[in-house]
Design a protein that fits this description.
The complex is a heterodimer of chains A (214) and B (115). Helix content of chain A is 71%, strand content 3%. Chain A has six helices and two strands, in the order H-H-H-H-E-E-H-H. A two-stranded antiparallel ribbon of chain A has the order 1-2. Chain A is mostly helical and 214 residues long. In chain A, helix 3 packs antiparallel against helix 6 (188-213). The relative contact order of chain A is 0.18. Chain B is flat. Mean pLDDT of chain B is 79; it is low at 1-19. Classes of the chains: A mainly alpha (214), B mainly alpha (115). The interface between A and B is large, with 65 and 51 residues.
Chain lengths: 214, 115
């Protein structure tokens, strides 16, 4: 152990949360409230869509406008990054510094890849006429709410991915300094960023279905 | 080494037995493969169920698949399967949005048509 003071192997067991650290309980509470935010947005999207005369137009479906194959690939990239993230947590638990660095790097690459695909998709859609307040598709005016809800929901998720990538870079920096792979509870920050990252992946699974596929 | 310490319940608590069933890397790879396969299935559903008369089937299939995938991520990648009931309750809170959705749909269904 390189630290000058002893690092506890675990926290005292609690009747309700077991041996979960305070940080872990706090992260779960944050994830729960963030889940309400996404839930509210998806609920609003659902209601706007139900009340709309056509979505996005009489003879058009969302799958006709949105690139399903590209987004499916982005979804797969995010699922891959979830796997690399869980491997990073496992490596950190085993005090494997090299493994943790490698898996964290791959997770960051996955996140950046996802954001790049999203940026390319936004650029393509804007050039095709799908705006935030007004939208046209092949010269035909379509329901303006289609573009608004699309950009709000996917943009809110994109902000989470961006925050996740920044968070991951901070944790990678600490791992490079050897802070999170000293055994005991030192791996806890890697586990916390993992929880956030998996939540971002979980939300995207729902966003992909409700916004793109339905 | 804290391999068996994270977030586990104390001896004698209901979650203690589950704590021994620790996930391995092969479990994570299996879940990843299942998620990948389900994503491929999801992508093909809109093209198979593309008629106006089978839109409800499409919606049911897609929502079921998405819920299943989200559950797999939460249970295995977020380790919820090995957490205590209290942590699971915290994680389940946003699921009540589904209840709000059902209530809103019922309200919408019985709302008088606006002229």
């Amino acid at each position: 152990m390189s630290s000058s003071h002893a690092i506890p192997a675990s926290v005292p067991a609690d009747d309700h949360v077991g041996k979960a650290t305070g940080g872990k309980v706090a992260m779960w509470l944050f994830i729960a409230q963030d889940g309400f935010s996404f839930g509210g947005l998806l609920l609003a999207y659902g209601l706007l869509r139900i009340f709309a005369d056509s979505w996005p137009a009489a003879d058009l479906r969302p799958t006709d406008i949105l690139g399903i194959n590209l987004t499916a690939f982005a979804t797969f990239v995010l699922i891959c990054s979830s796997l690399t993230m869980v491997m990073a947590v496992d490596s950190a638990q085993k005090a494997d510094r090299g493994g943790t660095i490698r898996w964290l790097l791959l997770t960051i690459v996955g996140g950046i890849c996802f954001l790049s695909i999203q940026a390319w998709e936004y650029t393509h859609l804007v050039h095709a006429g799908i705006g935030f307040t007004n939208s046209t598709w092949n010269g035909q005016t379509i329901n303006a709410l289609f573009g608004s809800t699309f950009y709000v929901v996917t943009g809110f998720h994109g902000c989470h991915v961006t925050a996740g990538v920044i968070y991951l870079i901070c944790i990678l920096r600490g791992t490079l300094k050897g802070k999170y792979t000293q055994g005991g509870l030192t791996y806890s920050p890697v586990e916390l960023v993992g929880l956030f990252w998996h939540f971002v992946d979980l939300v995207w699974i729902l966003v992909f279905t409700f916004i793109y596929l339905l | 080494m804290a391999k068996h310490d994270h977030g586990h319940a104390a001896h004698g608590t209901p979650a203690h037995d589950a704590a021994h069933d620790h996930p391995t890397r092969s479990t994570f790879v299996t879940i990843f493969l299942v998620l990948g396969f389900l994503t491929v299935v999801e992508v093909f559903i809109p093209s198979v169920y593309n008629s106006p008369w089978n839109q409800n089937t499409k919606m049911l299939l897609l929502v079921t698949l998405a819920s299943g995938k989200a559950l797999l991520v939460a249970l295995f990648f977020m380790h919820l399967k090995w957490e205590t009931p209290w942590i699971r309750r915290i994680a389940l809170m946003p699921a009540y949005m589904g209840l709000f959705a059902v209530l809103l749909m019922i309200e919408t269904a019985f709302r008088p048509q606006l002229s």
